[in-house]
Design goal:
DNA-binding, homodimer, Rossmann fold, 434 Repressor (Amino-terminal Domain), 13 helices, alpha/beta, six-stranded mixed beta sheet, elongated, 339 residues
DNA sequence: GTCCCAAACTAGAGCGCTCTAGTACCGATC
DNA sequence: GATCGGTACTAGAGCGCTCTAGTTTGGGAC
């Protein structure tokens, strides 16, 4: 910085002004400084600038590495954080690196807010963390308290699945359950609610999970059922699970959607490929990311005077999902409708 | 830090000594300081410590968010960086955030070295970057110069594929090509070499790519071929592409491996699922990560006196892949062997 | 010409650490 | 009792920025 200042014939302070993009430098000087910086291949040291200023203007994010939907969310987060004048600091969660450890490094970086994608930490820990600084849990609802929540209306999503299948004439509609994963309880609830609305519907719960593997296993259970008790349609916890299910069912010689209709959840990229063409409930990664940043930026930039913890707990942001109909669902056949 | 020092009744310098874990503090004091820190919920500010010390001890990593194999690599990188006393700074690449932008933020963080996972930057840029600081390109080979390379022996991998299929009696073995992706050229070369070793083998190249989508498209081309010219086996650029291919071929009523054998590349988690059971060439993410960190740590910690750029360009580290035989390959049938 | 004010610029004290060059103390040595 | 050597600890000057509180400059307005 010293060198750039010297080369441009100005003070260090002026260089700082130019690089922060604030008022207080003439157009001519601004260009002279930038030119000098370019010649010297200088770029401000982010560590030092964050140290010097009272605000770090960074948001920490924990995410599962290699998780496709988290990837979509990160893309959206990068865009909106940038627009709001924040930088993202990523901290990955892997089988050998716990979410708690990931959060620890974010705190040491002095992030101003923390974003947890699909957190698996218990509520008590989250509460404790939220007492220190603004936290938002994305995808996973947290009972109450200071933790911000941005999520899809999971229950509504499963209601969409069930209503779609019901509308196609299906009666035995199974839930391919997600177990203890973020959002699974809500989706289960949505399934139950929708199923109980109509007395003609029969509930069946198949144990599923988050990956294709569990979907495949559920498919074997499904195939083991007698034709009378076998569901004619399946509403899955998520797309990957649905895809695994479809794979195995097809390998067994059944047809999708001819013999069984399947609805996924998420609308991952793969679901849209022509050879998959999975009917699914879409989670809007773009909006989830946008709302997450907005929630945090609102609290941090505190439009009103009352920023800090004394304020009312942030209202959860719940985004409505949308049914995307593709080729994995069809009207119930006579055989199916009969059961 | 001030507060911790006061509470423990020592100087700030002593607190620093304790937290850096260096010699110079008695056991009793050490515990007293740690206790005080715990009570105050203090943790050192990483920005400030990096600023204060001459070394930042950080390695920057660019990766594609949501990319499954990059996830596996990150896991390994986290483990080995930690063991070598380095911290990782992640910078994600998304459709709207270029690799160049990702690198820019890493430079501004003053990382000591940069790790590029599956870089898509041109060689000239990489060279320029490597002139500034140690860089290693993982998965993608770079012609020569200062850029370090850690990769799988892609050519050998495809030779393994072809030899395996040849050994099963296949003659018409197609390459499901990866186009311009990192490593694709090498794999193409390996395929050609292996095919030309035996005059009985017939080369067929199908345009593929990196995702299931391209594999599915290639399958349609494949199905369009007459039975005489249709290959009896396919060596794919990667697992995802292979999986898309298999899906479509099966949906068309053909059997894998009965009618066509398929070999993937990478050995992603999904390939090992029982309902997929893809024969594939395994890339060892664990070792790739380990070697990457080792390469960088060697240069940075400069075992010998001559660290810096004057040194001999780092030799590329090439890791041998391994064939994992599962259920997507089988001996050529009479029909297949005849063609 | 004088006064005033905004715009353009600078000096220098932090930010929370690290790290060098010290001081204080204690037991062992002769 | 003076000297040594080593361990435990401290003072204080940076690290590369930010940011407050200035100082200087260049036009108008009268």
């Amino acid at each position: 910085m010293e060198h750039v200042a010297a080369r441009a014939g100005v003070s260090r302070a002026l260089v700082s002004i130019v690089f922060r993009g604030v008022a207080g430098a003439s157009e001519a000087t601004r260009e002279r400084v930038l030119a000098a910086a370019r010649e010297l291949d200088y770029r401000p040291d982010t560590r030092a600038s964050r140290l010097g200023s009272s605000r770090t203007r960074t948001l920490g994010v924990t995410f599962s590495v290699g998780h496709a939907f988290h990837g979509d969310l990160l893309e959206s987060l990068y865009t909106h954080a940038d627009a709001a004048g924040y930088e993202l600091v990523l901290s990955g969660v892997t089988p050998s690196r716990s979410e708690a450890a990931a959060v620890e490094t974010l705190l040491a970086e002095r992030c101003e807010g923390i974003i947890l994608l699909g957190s698996s930490q218990d509520t008590a820990r989250l509460e404790r963390l939220a007492a220190r600084l603004p936290v938002v849990s994305v995808l996973r609802p947290v009972a109450r308290g200071e933790v911000g929540v941005v999520r899809t209306d999971d229950a509504a999503g499963l209601r969409l699945s069930v209503e779609h299948l019901h509308g196609l004439g299906h009666r035995r509609i199974a839930l391919l359950d997600g177990g203890r994963t973020a959002g699974a309880a809500e989706r289960r609830r949505g399934y139950r609610t929708a199923m109980r609305r109509s007395p003609t519907l029969t509930e069946v719960v198949l144990t599923g999970g988050v990956t294709e593997l569990e979907g495949a296993e559920a498919a074997r259970t499904f195939l083991g059922l007698g034709p009378r008790e076998r569901p004619t349609a399946v509403a899955a916890f998520n797309d990957r699970c649905a895809i695994g299910f479809v794979d195995v069912v097809r390998q067994a010689g059944l047809h999708v959607p001819g013999d069984v209709s399947v609805v996924g959840f998420d609308d991952i990229t793969e679901a849209g490929y022509p050879h998959v063409a999975l009917t699914t409930v879409r989670q809007d990664a773009e909006r989830l990311g946008a709302e997450t940043v907005r929630t945090l930026a609102d609290r941090l930039d505190g439009g009103s005077s009352d920023r800090g913890s004394g304020t009312t707990p942030p209202a959860p942001v719940v985004i409505e999902p949308e049914l995307v109909v593709r080729a994995s669902t069809a009207p119930a056949t006579r055989h199916g409708a009969r059961s």
